[in-house]
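TASK: fixed-backbone design
INPUT:
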């Protein structure tokens, strides 16, 4: 009996390692494909509805934004809804901050989010977002510098961030106490 239990435990451990490796490989593939598609679009520029969006600098991957996106995709699946704000009132900003995407040390902080639902390929999800003027504008916003994307079953979330650091002279003024930073919540309206 001990031998059977030990063999089952070893097999379970081995299978969980395979699943983790496969999950990591799938996440890496999702990251690489989304970044390639997003950055090609940003490089080329495009029309978002009737509004032309000129080429924009490439985005870089941010693991904290990907974590926030994964939390939201999983939450939408688990609680059966489709919205930017959770059923419990969490906003994209709340999720990004909770995932470690902080505004501390930055002069300006900007967030955006695209969501999609359906059994689609990455290409189909991107095509849908490009055809929607508001989602397309998120993809092309010049101020966004970072992105994280996640899929949970048929729920897709793409979180964008743009943080602008303080200049050296601003840092010196803050350090000297000649200027103070006053934080205030940003309205979602």
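OUTPUT:
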């Amino acid at each position: 009996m001990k031998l059977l239990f030990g063999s089952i435990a070893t097999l379970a451990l081995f299978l969980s390692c395979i699943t983790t490796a496969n999950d990591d490989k799938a996440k890496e593939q999702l990251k690489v494909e989304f970044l390639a598609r997003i950055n090609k679009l940003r490089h080329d520029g495009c029309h978002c509805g009737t509004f032309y969006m000129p080429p924009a600098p490439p985005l870089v991957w941010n693991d904290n934004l990907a974590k926030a996106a994964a939390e939201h995709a999983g939450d939408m699946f688990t609680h059966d809804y489709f919205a930017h704000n959770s059923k419990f009132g969490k906003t994209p900003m709340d999720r990004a901050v909770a995932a470690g995407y902080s505004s501390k040390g930055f002069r300006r902080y900007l967030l955006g989010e695209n969501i999609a639902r359906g059994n689609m390929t990455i290409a189909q999800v991107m095509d849908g977002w490009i055809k929607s003027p508001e989602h397309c504008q998120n993809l092309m916003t010049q101020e966004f510098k970072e992105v994280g994307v996640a899929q949970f079953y048929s729920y897709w979330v793409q979180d964008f961030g743009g943080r602008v650091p303080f200049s050296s002279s601003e840092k010196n003024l803050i350090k000297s106490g000649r200027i103070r930073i006053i934080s205030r919540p940003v309205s979602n309206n």
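COMMENT: The chain is about 50% helix and 20% strand.
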